[in-house]
Specification:
Chain B: Pfam families: CcmB. The complex is a heterodimer. Chain A is α/β, with parallel strands linked by helices. Helices cover about 30% and strands about 25% of the residues of chain A. Chain A has helices spanning about 45-50, 75-80, 95-105, 110-120, 135-145, 145-150, 165-180, 205-210, and strands at about 5-15, 20-30, 35-40, 60-65, 70, 80-85, 155, 185-190, 200. In chain A, α3 packs across α4. Chain A is globular. The chains are: A alpha/beta, B mainly alpha. At the A-B interface, α2 and α3 of A face α1, α5 and α6 of B.
Chain lengths: ~210, ~230
């Protein structure tokens, strides 16, 4: 046994209205991993990601970060994760640059915000209110956070929604760069990723499990 | 990226002020409500200055309270819907400072303008001259209290789809002490009494609210989101 995994889930259970939504006995994530969470709609992919980000709390089970429970090292853990969910947290009345500025909250400076936006193909759109952008461009604004953050663990919930083919390739390259520099990615998507060494984690809702047995 | 507590405060203060600036019409609606209703009062009651003077301070305070309450509903609703509230909850920073930043921004766009235009309303409602200074002082402190208390209610009702009525029910009892001492400050000023007494109590309430409300809001936001 070497170093403890970056993330390790043990016997995680989450219920909603007395129905098990998540039942995850053993799942780990090491530096350099890309974990693709797959499953039909309603199988609990988002719930799993929200449990991992501490936006939800499980009744049972533990999530270990570098061998320590995330409740014990909450600050360190939360400083090391980045979550981009369905709701992109993009303020439509602000410009792309302003959005990125407050998302970084510690003031990254407008030049690095603009740089991040430009490398995601938003050159020339950085000072336009986001409601004037298309859905895919708004998504790119949210995804630009990936480039300005130094979090090691990325949680991406359906990041490819509304993104065009070039954007998908761009995002895949971001993920590849991230894991090759020691990061880890958990991504929920229905698309096949054009990346090597992606581990798959199939989610089957508990109700579906019961139907199969 | 580790950020200090004051950064969280400034980032959210700046962001919310910017958001209000972009939607100026929406942001100014409490103020417009405040002015519009008070112009109707002389028409509805009586234009007689002597009778208006009796109710002026009370009416101004009630309107300030309603205007603040109506706008408090939107404090967290937008952030809840677009996911930025969730981002805030999973950020490593102390929740209290961004919350305080948001409430400060709310006061700057509602309470402060109300305080500034209140002399105009005093004029329309024939408020006796001795009442102006106490009215402005008490509104400045009182509306800040109202913003903080309203934010607690807004946090409690944020996950409800139509939380407006619920918010009113939750915060109304909390607003009562504020309006009692706010109204008293103006009345004391008009009657020539030492109006700094009730004003000091209002100040004490504000101090307590600044210390306690952000904690309550942060706790409630965590509770309502983890369900």
């Amino acid at each position: 046994m070497g170093n403890p995994s970056l993330i390790k889930i043990e016997n995680l259970r989450f219920e909603r209205d007395d129905t098990a939504v998540i039942s995850c006995d053993n799942l780990y994530l090491d530096a350099g991993d890309i974990l693709q969470v797959e499953g039909p709609n309603g199988s609990g992919k988002t719930t799993l990601l929200r449990l991992l980000t501490t936006a939800l709390q499980a009744r049972e089970g533990t999530i270990l970060y570098c061998g320590k429970s995330i409740a014990e090292c909450r600050f360190e853990y939360l400083s090391d994760i980045l979550f981009i969910g369905h709701q992109s947290a993009v303020k439509l009345t602000l410009t792309a640059e302003e959005n990125l500025d407050w998302m970084a909250s510690s003031g990254i400076g407008s030049s690095s915000a603009v740089k991040a936006l430009e490398s995601l193909g938003l050159a020339g759109y950085t000072d336009i209110p986001c409601y004037k952008l298309s859905a895919g461009q708004q998504r790119r604004v949210a995804l630009a956070r990936l480039l300005i953050s130094d979090a090691r663990i990325w949680y991406l919930d359906e990041p490819f929604t509304a993104i065009d083919r070039d954007g998908v390739r761009l995002l895949e390259r971001c993920m590849k760069d991230h894991v090759s520099s020691g990061g880890a990615v958990v991504v929920s998507t229905h698309q096949d990723l054009d990346l090597q060494g992606v581990r798959h984690y199939p989610m089957l809702g508990e109700s579906l499990l019961r139907a199969y047995s | 990226m580790r950020s200090s507590a004051s950064n969280g405060f400034c980032a959210y203060l700046r962001r919310d002020l910017r958001l209000s600036h972009r939607r100026l019409g929406e942001a100014a609606s409490p103020l417009i409500f405040f002015i519009m209703v008070s112009t109707l009062v002389p028409l509805g009651i009586t234009p007689d200055p002597a009778s208006l003077a009796l109710v002026a301070s009370g009416i101004i305070w009630v309107l300030a309270l309603l205007a603040t309450m109506l706008s408090a509903n939107d404090l967290f609703a937008g952030d809840y819907q677009d996911g930025s509230l969730e981002q805030l909850l999973i950020s490593p920073q102390v929740l209290v400072m961004p919350v305080l930043g948001k409430v400060t921004a709310h006061w700057l766009v509602t309470g402060l303008p109300l305080t500034i235009v209140s002399p105009l309303l005093g004029l329309m409602l024939s408020l006796p001259e001795a009442g102006y200074l106490p009215m402005m002082a008490s509104l400045a402190l009182g509306t800040a209290c109202l913003s903080l208390l309203g934010a607690v209610g807004a946090a409690l009702t944020v996950s409800l789809q139509k939380g407006g009525m619920m918010l009113a029910l939750v915060v109304m009892p909390l607003y009562m002490p504020v309006i009692i001492f706010g109204g008293a400050t103006v009345q004391f000023g008009i009657d020539g009494l030492a109006w700094t007494g009730p004003l000091a109590i209002l100040g004490a309430m504000l101090a307590a609210a600044i210390a306690l409300c952000p904690l309550a809001i942060a706790g409630v936001l965590r509770l309502t989101s983890i369900n």
